[in-house]
Specification:
Strand content: under 5%
Order of helices and strands: HHHHHEEHH
Oligomer: single chain
Number of strands: 2
Length: 224
């Protein structure tokens, strides 16, 4: 059977921006809702001393559900959803940077290398402060905290979600200043920038003649 692969290179001008942003946010949100409890469990397992609280993933899931309810599995979730912005900024930065670099160099590998690194720089600059805050909220157990900061209850009443967020933000700022929101920022850049800068050029490598001979691959879509 004849191989009729179609591996077009999708550029910024080919995208329906409204569908891209709406569907992108909705799909990412659905994934976040399903995996967030396990992100919280992983974070608590990494922070605890030995097996002082949980013996493993399933044990942590059962204990959190039993003592804190379903809400306990989603501590910090609303704050964490703001990282959806970083995801959209990542793709936007990537595409706009590719478009800008193409003025000086039309090599797809070069464009993707620069754009991928730039996109991760922008995304991590947004993501890290949000992650720091949400991770401190993940550490808030019922009546106690596993981390450095503890949400203060007002007159024995349960504080609203964004009230807890504000309280954590104030405590981080008092303890560490603005730099406290960027703990691990350099490590994140050193992790994600090289990964993104190397990963994207491989798309064009796989779409190239080594993997897709010119006789088999269709031409790229025209801008609409």
């Amino acid at each position: 059977m004849e191989d009729k692969r179609n591996i077009p290179i999708i550029e910024w001008e080919h995208l329906d921006k409204r569908k891209f942003y709406v569907f992108g946010i909705c799909m990412t949100m659905m994934i976040r809702v399903s995996v967030y409890p396990f992100t919280l469990i992983r974070t608590r397992l990494q922070v605890q001393k030995g097996k002082s609280l949980y013996n493993g993933t399933f044990d942590a899931f059962v204990k959190i559900l039993r003592t804190e309810g379903t809400a306990g599995l989603y501590r910090g979730f609303l704050v964490n959803t703001f990282t959806l912005i970083s995801g959209q900024c990542y793709v936007t930065t990537y595409e706009l940077t590719r478009k800008y670099v193409s003025r000086y160099n039309n090599n797809n590998a070069v464009k993707s290398l620069v754009a991928g690194g730039s996109a991760s720089l922008v995304a991590q600059s947004i993501t890290v402060p949000i992650d720091v805050i949400s991770q401190h909220l993940m550490m808030q157990r019922k009546g106690e905290s596993m981390g450095r900061f503890k949400v203060q209850n007002q007159d024995g009443k349960r504080m609203l979600v964004f009230g807890q967020t504000k309280d954590i933000i104030v405590q981080i700022f008092k303890a560490d200043g603005f730099r406290g929101f960027y703990r691990g920022y350099v490590a994140s850049l050193l992790t994600y920038i090289p990964n993104s800068a190397v990963w994207w050029p491989f798309y064009h490598f796989y779409a190239g003649p080594w993997f897709c001979p010119e006789s088999l691959c269709l031409s790229r879509p025209e801008a609409v």
